[in-house]
Amino acid sequence: MTVVARPEAFTPGDGALEVTVEDRFYLGDHVRAGARLPDGRELSLRFDPSREPTGDTVSLCVDPDRLHVID
To answer: How far is residue 27's CA from residue 49's CA, in Å, rounded to a whole number?
Structure first.
């Protein structure tokens, strides 16, 4: 089983998922960020520039309604 989510499913907050933000790309109405989990897996994130996480390590919340399970 594989769980997938689009970048906008993740938001900065007090979530249990800790990532290291490695790159930020400002794209007008949103920011696209490349991040890495502690085990080395990579994530692509999208968020509102006004909610941009500060620092290299951020905590993320995941919207469970935006997760998709693939068998």
So the answer is: 9
